[in-house]
Design a protein that fits this description.
Strand content: 15-25%
Distance between the termini: 26 Å
Number of helices: 15
């Protein structure tokens, strides 16, 4: 069992605090399991099981609860015999329309401690944020990191484990599967569930085929700069499909809302401003790249970039792509007033590759740390730029 201390430690410190705890992440990344870990901790602290209310809105048992009135009645009915503080857990809360109205009233009307999960990155936006301003803490959750993957697998070969992780990703249940067929079917099942429930049904999309082409284009271009217009041009020229950049922009937003894709904007490091056009997208788990496109091992430099991006997110960095002159830096990472620069490549196999990866970092004249990450085992640090093996980066958490 992996306790997922990265998330549990943060949530544990908030238990019994007058703030709503909201765990947001893609389907099947472990949010429901995290609820079980929190409940175990409550029981260890002496909380009676009867004072813990757990409602999973993916269950058929609660399928008829679709609006705040029905949710109010359900909670009132389930808690009427409970004495003392109530610990309320609501799993996949976005399945209830206007749920924020009920949650805010529970906070006022009950002696309670509230925990939520959701599979939509915009769960806490717009009107909802207005209702709960200053009263919630959002915890973003992802599939297993490589370190968590190793904790689960207990393997003696980190490199073999990394190759498996690079290919099939880190969804928790997938690690219990052995055959390639089972892993592929499981990943396809998750993908189709996200596609149907969190995108097609939620946004009433009629042309699922177009949406499929867009997401496959993005996955096939991981780590490359794209735009709504460039995708529109590609579909028109290569697939004879006419679709406006506006429609593509909307579809990309739906995919990011579902926590399937993450958008990274470019930053002009000389002008110190965020650029409004052209960005990169990374998929929440590289296993989806494998089952949709099927070339993770061949494209492992870009898949490594995908892995490093999410590891940096787990470590709390805000990330942009750095632009300096005609050069690009993969990741500019900021946290608590500090900054690091990161380049990712498969290997530093010759002087041309070394020049390509190190030169953009050398053009940055500030004194913040600069890193190049690759699979090479020999330390190739130079000119104040630190070179790191990717396994050391993922396991040791040095940066």
């Amino acid at each position: 069992m992996v306790k997922r201390d990265l998330y549990l430690n943060r949530i544990s410190s908030l238990i019994d605090k007058d703030i709503i705890k909201v765990i947001v992440g893609v389907r099947r990344c472990g949010k429901s399991y995290m609820f079980n870990l929190i409940i175990d901790e409550l029981l260890e602290r002496g909380i009676n099981k009867e004072n813990i209310l757990l409602i999973n809105f993916e269950s058929a048992k609660y399928r008829n609860v679709s609006n705040p009135r029905e949710l109010d009645l359900l909670v009132r009915d389930l808690t009427k015999e409970i004495n003392g503080k109530i610990y309320m857990f609501f799993d996949e809360i976005q399945n209830v329309d206007e749920w924020e109205k009920s949650i805010n009233s529970f906070r006022v009307d009950y002696d309670c401690d509230i925990y939520l999960t959701g599979s939509n990155s915009k769960l806490l936006s717009g009107e909802l944020a207005t209702h709960l301003t200053g009263r919630y803490m959002e915890i973003k959750m992802y599939p297993f990191s490589f370190k968590e993957y190793l904790d689960y697998k207990k393997t003696s070969s980190n490199m073999k484990a990394f190759n498996d992780y690079l290919t099939y990703g880190g969804f928790p249940f997938l690690l219990s599967l052995e055959s390639e067929i089972d892993k592929t079917e499981y990943l396809n099942d998750i993908f189709n569930s996200i596609f149907l429930k969190d995108i097609i049904e939620r946004y009433s999309i009629r042309d699922a085929g177009l949406l499929t082409r867009i997401v496959d284009f993005i996955l096939d271009n991981t780590g490359k700069i794209v735009s709504s217009k460039s995708i529109s041009d590609y579909l028109r020229k290569k697939e004879k499909i006419k679709v406006s950049p506006k429609t593509i922009y909307n579809y990309l937003e739906y995919l990011t809302n579902a926590c399937l894709l993450y958008k990274v904007q470019r930053e002009d490091l000389e002008g110190k401003k965020i650029l409004s056009i052209n960005e990169k997208y990374y998929c929440v788990d590289q296993g989806f790249n494998q089952v949709r496109i099927g070339r993770n091992q061949l494209n492992n430099s870009r898949i490594m970039e995908n892995i490093v991006y999410f590891e940096l997110l787990r470590r709390g960095y805000e990330i942009t792509i750095g632009c300096i002159g005609d050069y690009e830096i993969d990741f500019v990472c900021k946290k608590m007033g500090e900054k690091i620069y990161v380049q990712v490549t498969r290997e530093l196999s010759n002087e041309d590759t070394i020049e390509r990866e190190f030169r953009p970092l050398l053009l940055v004249k500030d004194n913040y740390p600069k890193y190049v990450i690759s699979t090479d085992e020999f330390d190739m640090s130079r000119d104040g730029i630190k070179h790191m093996n990717i396994l050391d980066f993922l396991i040791d958490e040095e940066i």
